[in-house]
Amino acid sequence: MTTTPLHRRAAALALTVATAAFAAGCVSTPDRPPTLLTLPGPTTASAPAPATAAPREGRTLAMARLDIPEYLVSRRVRYRTDGSTLAEWPDTFWAERIEVGMSREFASALRARLPGWRLCESQCAEWSPAAGLRVVIDRMDYSRAQRRLQASARVAVVGHGADARSVNTQRLEYELTSEADTPQAQAQAYADLLDRLATDAAAAVAGLRP
Question: Beta partners for 176?
Answer without folding.
Answer: 149
